Amino acid sequence: MGIGVRSLIFDNLLAYETRQLKKDWLEPYFLMEDFTLTHDIYKNGPVFFSVSEENSDDLYAHFTYYLPINEPVRLADETHFRFQRKLHIEKALVLRQADEELDFQTAYKKLKDYAVTHHIPLEDTYYCVLLEVYDDYLIDLYVPIKEMRE
Question: Angle CA(94)–CA(95)–CA(96) in degrees, nearest 5?
């Protein structure tokens, strides 16, 4: 799959926010999986996360992890999780990381370069959708396209 334009739409999400080392991006994925098991919440889609970098050279970034669930939930105040009704991104550039890239940050640079070449304005936050395939992960990278105001 090459670079394309798609939507990213999910309803009924558990969300977890953290500022962490970029290299530790997979750790909260397991935290979310464990949370659903211990709270009788049923996952109905892939875990995905957004990344907001203050500086691309920085070792840290702000991450928000999302887990689609089957229905709205009320969470106890002591959890670090929150419920989010929906996440709808109408248009985003998309690249399946597994095509050729080493990691999602390399894929993100490739999408940014493509956007510059094709004069496509992009948002600063990007989304990585983790698809579990045969005990490995494929990452679909979504970078929202900025709306052009007239």
Answer: 125
Domain count along the chain: 1
Summarised one tens digit per residue, pLDDT across range 52-108 is 987 777 889 999 999 999 999 888 776 789 999 999 999 999 997 655 556 777 888
Structural domain containing residue 69: 4-144
The CATH number assigned to the domain holding 30 equals 3.20.80.10
Residue 122 is given by DSSP the state B
Indicate the burial class of 63 (C-beta count within 10 angstroms; 0-12, 13-18, 19 or more).
buried
Top pLDDT among 47 and 98 is at 47
User: Rounded CA gap, 89 and 86, in Å?
Assistant: 10
Torsion of CA 124, 141, 92, 80, to 10 degrees: -60
